[in-house]
Every structure is written in structure tokens, then in C-alpha cells.
């Protein structure tokens, strides 16, 4: 049996799966936690990866591997390969003003044309501008910029600070893939190259950026194993799910994401749809919402029930909840862009205000927010034929039954799994046979 390894270094934890390259069957796996926070010392990810690898039984018998991970996080390195400051993660919002400044300087239409994105605080380009504006001494030290999965790949291949790694601080050995490069805000999906002018506008000077590997390109680690370019988390999940053009993945976690596999690039100057690439040579237009599974958590608390009972109550009500409607903007909303909005409950009458209808309104309201993402994708001409429902919220029986009615698509719910890590393992198997 030929074994390959996939890694998912997410915001919360590091997951490792070792699979049979031929069948994708998981042979063994491991996990380790990450620290909380929106700014994290990358060394914590490296420590967690070592622990997860040990938990998975090591890599001595693995013949290829790849790393998937959280997108957008800024890992700034100096000329000696040392981390300049804690990495600002995708969910660190301190760079919101930097995003607005970059949009004002270049124009939303121009940025969308050049990169597929209109800057928001999540994207790496805004974090680099924040660094330039608020920590100019640190910005001046930056010799290379990587993303979390790029940096972990580099370290696991044996590179790193002088005296701490067998192959030393060779910054030119940093590699990435199309999907993660497309989330930086300074990569051009049309040419497949970096937009250096935008990088300089953000950081204040040029820097080494990871080489973008194609879908079947590979490099090697210190032991001679083949190493894929890795993936961003959403692209890894799409690969792990074997999603194809016409599929839209609806992920119901703490936040919600709606992303589709597309043969064509999308450009949305409104910024509603991020025009990401995937790791296979296609594209992955994506819409993100702030309010997803926590909507169900909130209404379950109000009703004093667990999620199983919330589901039973929701399915006991009729579609439409007798006119009761929940607009679930409990934490503002990103899509649509209403950061200061609040949730509201309307259509309350003596007849409609029941526990069953409130539960149903919660499920329908949450799914309606995700359906708005599908509408945005359709508006850009992305073909949608089937929805794949994943994430913690997808385990609700009510969500699974109500989703086709609200989303307007056939819905499939894959078995729960570590799909980002599985996607990275699938990429490793692909480069092994390339």
C-alpha cells in the first residue's frame, strides 16, 4: 500500500490524515489544538503540526504529502527566515481601514479586474498595509511574505531560521498554490502571476513571494518525498469532496461559506463574490456570511432545548412558519455588507408565535442568508446544479430537510469528514503519479 499525507492547519487546530494513495481510505490520523486569538505566533502552528504528526504515527512510511490551511493570514519573514511579528489571521479586523484606503486608491472595479477581489479586512494585502502604517519598523524588516500553509510547507520541507532547520533560511524555496495565492489581493488570476505594484502599495517595498505551483507540480522535502503546493481551506474542502463544475458547497459552521467549482473566472466589483481560484486549475467563486450555525445555537438557548429538539420543533411547523420570519443578523452581516445590522423577528401574531414556528423560522432564516450567496453566484453566471451541505449545522435533520426548499437545489449531505486534509492528501496522491 502506498501512503500519502494531507494536513489541515485551520484556525482552531491541526489535523493530519494518512491515506491509501490508490483508494483515499484513511489509514490513520492525528490532531492537535491551536491557540485562540486573531494574531498568533506561527511557531504555535509548527508545534501543533509536530504533535499531530506524532499522533498520526509519523511520516516515515509516507511517500508524498501536502498541506492545506486557513487562508489570508500574514506570515512576515525577515532575511534570516525569522517571523517578524505574530501572524494576523483572516479574522483579525484591525486592517478594515487599510482595506478602505486601498479601495479608495485603486478603485473597486480596477482591483476586482486585477485580482478578482475587492479588499476587506480578511485579505493579506490589507494586513500588509496595516503593518506599513502602524509598525513601519517591522514592515521595513519584511523580506518575504507567506501564508500559513506556505510557511508550514516550507518548514516541513526542512527550511527555516538559521540554526533551527536543516536546510536553512532559503526564502526562494517558499511555494504555494493558486487557491491560496488568489486570496492575497496581489495575485492576478488572469495571468497566474503576482501584481507587484499592489504588493508595493501595501507593504511599501517589494518582497519574496512563494512560487505558485501548478496543479500537478511538486517539490521535495529533505527526505526526497514529493510535496504538493497545498491548498487554501475552501479549495481543499472542494477537492476532498470531489466537487465538480455545477456543484456548490454550502458550509454551515460558525460562519457560513458558499463556494462553487467553476470553469470560468468571476469578477464582482461589489465585492460580494470573491473571485478565488482553486487548486486544480479551475476557479472557486465564494460568498461568506457571518451568521450560520450560531443562529441555531441562539434560538436553541432561547427555547431552552438541545439541537435535536430544536430540529424536531422546526419540522413540526409548516413551511413559512405561519408568517414568522427571522432575519438572522445577530452579529451584523458580511453578505450583504451590513456590519452594524441586528437580527429581527417579524410576522408575530398570537397564532404564529409558537415554539415550533420560532424553531422553523431560525432554520429558514439561516438558510435564506446562505441562499443569498447562491443568488449572487447565479448573478455572475456561475452554473449551480447541486448543493453539498457540510459543517456542523449540516448535521441538523431540520436543516437537511428544509435546505432544498430554501436553496432551490437538490441537496446532498456527505458523511462528516476532515475534507480539507483529505483534499490535501488527494493532491499528494496526484503529484505522486504525475
UniProtKB/TrEMBL annotation:
Xref: InterPro entries: ATPase_NBD, Carb_kinase_FGGY, Carb_kinase_FGGY_CS, FGGY_C, FGGY_Carb_Kinase, FGGY_N, Xylulokinase
Binding site for substrate: 71-72
Domain Carbohydrate kinase FGGY N-terminal, first and last residues per copy: 4-217
Sites marked Important for activity: 8
Molecular function terms, GO-annotated: D-xylulokinase activity
Enzyme class per UniProt: transferase
Enzyme Commission numbers on file: 2.7.1.17
Catalyses which reaction(s): D-xylulose + ATP = D-xylulose 5-phosphate + ADP + H(+)
Transmembrane segments: none
Described purpose of this protein according to its UniProt entry: Catalyzes the phosphorylation of D-xylulose to D-xylulose 5-phosphate.
Protein name: Xylulose kinase
Amino acid at each position: 500500500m502506498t501512503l500519502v499525507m494531507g494536513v489541515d492547519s485551520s484556525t482552531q487546530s491541526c489535523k493530519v490524515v494518512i491515506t491509501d494513495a490508490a483508494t483515499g481510505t484513511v489509514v490513520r490520523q492525528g490532531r492537535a489544538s491551536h491557540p485562540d486569538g486573531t494574531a498568533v505566533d506561527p511557531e504555535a502552528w509548527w508545534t501543533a503540526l509536530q504533535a499531530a504528526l506524532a499522533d498520526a504515527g509519523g511520516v516515515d512510511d509516507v511517500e508524498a504529502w501536502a498541506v492545506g490551511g486557513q487562508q489570508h493570514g500574514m506570515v512576515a519573514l525577515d532575511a534570516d527566515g525569522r517571523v517578524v511579528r505574530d501572524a494576523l489571521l483572516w479574522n483579525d479586523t484591525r486592517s478594515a481601514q487599510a482595506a478602505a484606503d486601498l479601495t479608495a486608491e485603486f478603485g473597486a472595479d480596477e482591483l476586482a479586474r486585477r485580482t478578482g477581489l475587492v479588499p476587506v479586512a480578511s485579505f493579506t494585502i490589507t494586513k500588509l498595509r496595516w503593518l506599513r502604517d502602524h509598525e513601519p519598523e517591522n514592515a521595513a524588516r519584511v523580506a518575504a511574505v507567506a501564508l500559513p500553509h506556505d510557511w508550514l510547507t516550507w518548514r516541513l520541507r526542512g527550511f527555516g531560521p538559521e540554526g533551527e532547520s536543516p536546510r536553512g533560511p532559503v526564502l526562494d524555496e517558499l511555494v504555494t498554490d493558486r487557491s491560496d495565492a488568489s486570496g492575497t489581493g496581489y495575485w492576478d488570476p488572469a495571468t497566474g502571476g503576482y501584481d507587484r505594484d499592489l504588493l508595493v502599495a501595501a507593504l511599501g517595498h517589494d518582497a519574496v513571494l512563494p512560487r505558485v505551483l501548478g496543479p500537478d507540480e511538486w517539490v521535495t522535502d529533505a527526505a526526497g518525498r514529493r510535496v504538493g503546493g497545498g491548498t487554501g481551506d475552501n479549495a481543499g474542502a472542494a477537492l476532498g469532496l470531489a466537487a465538480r463544475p455545477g456543484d456548490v458547497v454550502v458550509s454551515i459552521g460558525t460562519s457560513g461559506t458558499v463556494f462553487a467549482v467553476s470553469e470560468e473566472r468571476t469578477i464582482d466589483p461589489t465585492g460580494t463574490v470573491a473571485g478565488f481560484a482553486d487548486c486544480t486549475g479551475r476557479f472557486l467563486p465564494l460568498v461568506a456570511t457571518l451568521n450560520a450555525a450560531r443562529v441555531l445555537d441562539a434560538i436553541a438557548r432561547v427555547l431552552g432545548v438541545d439541537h435535536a429538539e430544536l430540529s424536531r420543533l422546526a419540522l413540526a411547523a409548516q413551511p413559512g412558519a405561519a408568517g414568522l420570519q427571522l432575519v438572522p443578523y445577530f452579529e451584523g452581516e458580511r453578505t450583504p455588507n451590513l456590519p452594524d445590522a441586528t437580527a429581527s423577528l417579524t410576522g408575530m401574531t398570537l397564532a404564529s408565535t409558537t415554539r415550533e414556528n420560532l424553531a422553523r423560522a431560525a432554520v429558514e432564516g439561516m438558510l435564506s442568508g446562505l441562499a443569498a450567496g447562491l443568488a449572487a453566484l447565479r448573478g455572475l453566471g456561475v452554473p449551480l446544479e447541486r448543493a453539498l451541505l457540510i459543517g456542523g449545522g449540516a448535521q441538523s435533520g431540520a436543516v437537511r430537510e428544509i435546505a432544498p426548499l430554501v436553496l432551490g437545489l437538490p441537496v446532498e449531505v456527505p458523511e462528516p469528514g476532515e475534507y480539507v486534509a483529505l483534499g490535501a492528501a488527494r493532491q499528494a496522491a496526484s503529484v505522486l503519479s504525475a
